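Throughout this chapter, every protein is written as a compact record of paired, labelled lines. The reader may check this reading against the record printed directly beneath this paragraph:
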Amino acid sequence: MEKVRVFLGIRDRNFSEKIKALSGDVEIVGESASLEAIKGNSKRIDLLFLDRIPLMGFSNSKIKRVIAASRYSRKKEFLSVISGVKGFITKDISEPYLLKAIKVISAGEIWMTRYTVAKVFEEYYRMAKGNGKRRILS
């Protein structure tokens, strides 16, 4: 497997060290909370770790965004999903689970709680029903 190129858009020494411990599978291509630094490295980034829900102005769809929160919040996780985030973890995640999350997200899947996945489906159904049309996505 090719190394996953990550950019740490957060300033948290402990979390950075946890990512660095995965150096056999992960390459850190940058570390800065600056939006300009993130945009400047966007061609080299597979996963972008943030500690806040991304600004709407950052819409590079090729970069998969992951929220690394200090503590779990259902509301923050749900808001992250609707802003296009592909993963939601807490900073105290164990290294084995962090590596698993990185692999899952970089493969194009999501890393969310089942609760949030269910809420997304409920919201989608509510919106589809409200439009008076039911469509099956292909």
